[in-house]
Amino acid sequence: MNRASNLVHAAIVGAGPYGLSLAAHLREAGVPFRIFGSPMQSWATQMPATMLLKSDGFASNLSSGSVPFTLEDFCKLTGRPYHDTQIPIPVEDFIAYGQEFARRFVPNLEEQNVVSIEREDNVFRVTLASGDTFLARHVIAATGVSLFQYLPPDLAHLPKNMVTHTTAHRVFQSFAGSDVTVLGRGASSLNSAALLHEAGARVTLISRKFKIHFHETGSSEQRPFLDRLLHPSSPLGHSMRSWISSNMPGLMRALPSPIRDLVIYKHLGPAGGSTLRDRVAGKFPTLLGWSISSAELIEAPNSADRRIKLTLTNSEGESREHITSHIIAGTGFRVDMSRYRFLNDAIRSEINCRRDGAPVLGPHFETSVKGLSMIGPVAYSSFGPLLRFAAGSEFAARQVTRQLVRSLAKHQRSNSSAFAGIPARSTVK
User: For 58-90, what is each residue's pLDDT tens digit?
Assistant: First the structure.
């Protein structure tokens, strides 16, 4: 096959909110690209089936370019209830919205996986699960956080069927009648604990911190004018810091790293959505301020009767034991470049990373590897907390599209100049 005919300007790996939004922008801009993945896959396979989004409706839009197609548009079209702030969004509605977005704006989505990407001269060779290969000048990884599930090392020696991450569960009926311990106090932990309790499990929630936080809802228009002026509404909440983080992620990137890290650390810590408060408070035991110091498997003649004994300690040096049949860890995600297994070792080794494992990104989300960009939650260390949410997809899509439009124009000019001065072939015999 001719090398030029097998070359595309950009390849997008991932079809979640960020990958789909970027694809819509590139399509509108006329940039040749291919995109791979199942639309909204991690949302459809790694989140509780009946979960409600923590983000408000107005903060849960994908970006389609100059022709908007918002979550509100989708809900009106399909007869689903919607309000910018007052009606929590079921995850199934958000998934359906993303899938409809893909049908409308990304008709060329290829629902197969990329298994390998390697350098070949000044381009990338992309290999698909089908065995087909092609070349791309640019690769954009938009794989979300599903690659970066984190389990505490203290639990690594326990049987994998007794210790799972929250992303492993969509339904919880199989735990009815069982003792289940949930670790953490974020949205995934609280959702899992509430759903376990409602499914008939005996739940205990354990957190190192002393308080569980819940986000509050409320229309910005209902607040006094001065309060709205001093604490403006944004996709990240009601505060000036949230407004700046939402509207100026480029400025966030320009901040000195220690200041940006402090803003990120203090902004939007673990918390449940407002609808979880009544489903969690007082419903099951919560052990707050306790950390796991050791975990031990208690064997039994029947493997189904095995238990885990946790030794817990608090800040005052006290200890206690806790026995459970299963642990579900809502211990979040930690960026680790080694999890990008579709990138070969040579490429991964060239990616410049921060101490927290996240890639150092340029203003258009480019990594230190020329032609390789990364968008989505992996970029929050560079651009701030907005990139942890779907609301950041518009900024990422616009920035990367600008860069790829310029790059495409440069290649087109280069190709044109290569033929300049070559006489046109005569058609006279």
Answer: 999 999 999 999 999 999 999 999 999 999 999
Number of neighbours of residue 243 by Cβ within 10 angstroms:
17
For CATH 3.50.50.60, list the domain ranges present in the chain: 4-148+334-414, 153-214+271-329
What is the spatial distance between Cα 158 and Cα 333, in angstroms, rounded to a whole number? 20
b/e burial code for range 71-99 (CB count within 10 A of at least 16 → b): bbbbbeeeebebebbeebbbbebbbbbbb
| Burial category of 22 from C-beta neighbours within 10 Å (exposed 0-12, middle 13-18, buried 19 and up) | buried
Q: pLDDT tens for residues 170-199? A: 999 999 999 999 999 998 999 999 999 999
Sign of CA dihedral 196, 197, 203, 206: positive
Q: Cα angle vertex 32, ends 26, 33, to 5°?
A: 75
* pLDDT tens per residue across span 126-137: 999 999 999 999
**pTM of the full structure:** 0.90
Query: CATH for 4-148+334-414, among 1.10.8.420, 3.50.50.60, 3.30.450.20, 3.40.50.12160?
Result: 3.50.50.60
